[in-house]
Specification:
InterPro entries: KR_dom, L-xylulose/Carbonyl_redctase, NAD(P)-bd_dom_sf, Sc_DH/Rdtase_CS, SDR_fam. Homotetramer. The chain is built from eight helices and seven strands. The chain has 241 residues and is an alpha/beta fold. The structure holds NADPH dihydro-nicotinamide-adenine-dinucleotide phosphate.
């Protein structure tokens, strides 16, 4: 239970499934005012049934104007979590223009748009957490487009940490290795593929959803009050192996 999240107002994108969904549930249980953003009305209904305190907004993040209009209505915020993303993992030679555009539209253009839209609502001492990936800084087979978008997310994180610091808004990212959500299962369930990667992780396992949620909440909280422009790698020591 995250006692320091009580009464904090936090907007989370990609709230319908995976990491974002679990984050919304745990923040609501901790007494935060959660604004959950997703494109599926069914998933948002489920979140409201879980906790009627969760406010929901239905948006396709690829739609620039819809994001602007819908998110303009949000109240003052203590935190923004840019979590939604897509992962199209395919050999470089097979990736299409549409794959490129889809991935960039959701993973970085929408992060830029959402952040710019809600910026006037971010209070002093609030923070932004971008859900990036270890793939931002390390190479994995088939990850060319996905990795490029996450490298862009890390770059945006550092640039905004600089620009928004004087407004007392901190900006950080969490950068997990594989997490076995739908996205992780889709791409890493084959032992022939996951085995060599696991062999490079000293803890010899992938990241748990709870470990990502804990990292995000740490960065949202006052416990990280002097952490700004930082990428919190959640990778069990992969980078030192
Ligand atoms: P999921 O696929 O489970 O969740 C991604 C969420 O993003 C979904 O709710 C999805 O909605 C939403 N989303 C995608 N496109 C849009 C859109 N156009 N408009 C609105 N919402 C959209 O993945 P994870 O929970 O695993 O991923 C969460 C974050 O963690 C992502 O940023 C991902 O890159 C990052 N990450 C994940 C890793 C993993 O192995 N799982 C590893 C490292 C980082 P919908 O259900 O409608 O498609």
């Amino acid at each position: 239970m995250y006692e320091n999240m009580k009464n904090k107002t936090i907007l989370v994108t990609g709230a319908g499934a995976g990491i974002g969904n679990e984050l919304c549930r745990q923040l609501a249980q901790a007494g935060a005012n959660v604004i959950a953003v997703a494109r599926s009305t069914e998933q948002l209904k489920e979140l409201r049934s879980f906790s009627p305190s969760i406010k929901t907004l239905q948006v396709d993040l690829k739609d620039w104007q819809q994001v602007r209009q819908t998110l303009a209505t949000v109240p003052d915020l203590d935190g923004l979590v840019n979590n939604a993303a897509v992962a199209i993992i395919r050999p470089f030679t097979e990736l299409t223009e549409q794959d490129f555009d889809n991935t960039f539209d959701v993973n970085i253009k929408a992060v830029f748009n959402v952040t710019q839209t809600v910026l006037p609502k971010l209070k002093p001492n609030s923070c932004i957490v971008n859900v990036s990936s270890l793939a931002a800084s390390r190479s994995f087979d088939g990850h060319t487009v996905y990795s490029a978008t996450k490298a862009a997310v890390d770059s945006l994180t550092r640039s905004l940490a600089l620009e928004l610091g004087p407004r007392k808004i901190r900006v950080n990212s969490v950068n997990p290795t594989v997490v076995l959500t739908k996205m992780g299962r889709d791409n890493w369930s084959d032992p022939a593929k996951s085995g060599p990667l696991l062999a490079h992780i000293p803890q010899n396992r992938f990241c748990e959803v709870q470990e990502v949620v804990d990292g995000i909440v740490y960065l949202l909280s006052d416990k990280s009050s002097f952490v700004n422009g930082h990428h919190l790698n959640l990778e069990g020591g992969y980078s030192v192996s």
